[in-house]
Amino acid sequence: TKNERYQIYSLRKARHSPSEIARLLGRHPATIGRELRRNAGLRGYRPGQAQKLSAGRRREASKARKVTDDVRRQIECLLRQDLSPQQVVDYLKRHCGVSLHHETVYQLIYVDKASGGSLYAHLRIASKPYRKRYGSYDRRGKIKNRIGIDKRPAVVDQRIRIGDWEGDTVIGKGRSGALLTMVERKTLYTVIVRLMRKKSDLLTQAAITHMAHLKDRI
């Protein structure tokens, strides 16, 4: 941002290294290094000039088309293997270098459904209508004392430390059973627990029991 560029300029004047600047601004060191390389002029790095250069590139850049025909075929293949949209985008990012939002996959599924396709049948909860994940008021009940994902520390998204976990539940065919999955974000170490019943207290106890032995290793 413009404000960050002025901070970078001041910190450089104070002889801070790019890695120190990254730490102070909560940015990845590569981000700071790229900013200094791309937006420096003949007189060095100046925030006003850097902002103009960045804005100019943004105006002139054409929007990249990420969902090519090949990527679309891969998405369809992965969905037909019953991977969730979140798992599909993780797979594409890791193995194909393609970074997508899971909402993009959902949109492809429902465009396919509108044209008579069957991809929607491979969703984990195919019988429920699609609900947009953001941008609209949700009238359903709220989890008590819930902390939204937007409150999650930025360092978690960088996946540079061990100890940040994501939990999810997988419902079996006919809703007859359930699995609790817990994935460590950096190493992708995964814990899978079978739940005998779909009850919140049982899920909580299962998570505590199967994670307790990892407490002293992280």
Class by alpha and beta content: mainly alpha
Strand content: 5-15%
Number of β-strand runs: 5
Give the strand order of the largest sheet, numbering strands 1, 2, ... along the chain: 3-4-5
How confident overall, as mean pLDDT? 83
Termini Cα gap: 34 Å
Largest sheet: 3 strands, antiparallel
Kindly provide the radius of gyration, computed on alpha-carbon positions and rounded to a whole number of angstroms: 22 Å
Task: Explain what the structure shows.
- The chain has 218 residues and is mostly helical.
- The chain folds into 3 domains: 2-60; 69-122; 150-217.
- The chain has 9 helices and 5 strands; from the N terminus they run H-H-H-E-E-H-H-H-H-H-E-E-E-H.
- It has a 3-stranded antiparallel beta sheet with strand order 3-4-5, with helices on one face. It has a two-stranded antiparallel ribbon with strand order 1-2.
- Helix 1 packs antiparallel against helix 4, helix 5 (69-80) crosses helix 6 (85-96) and helix 6 crosses helix 7 (102-114).
- The protein is flat.
- It starts with a helix and ends in a 7-residue tail after the last helix.
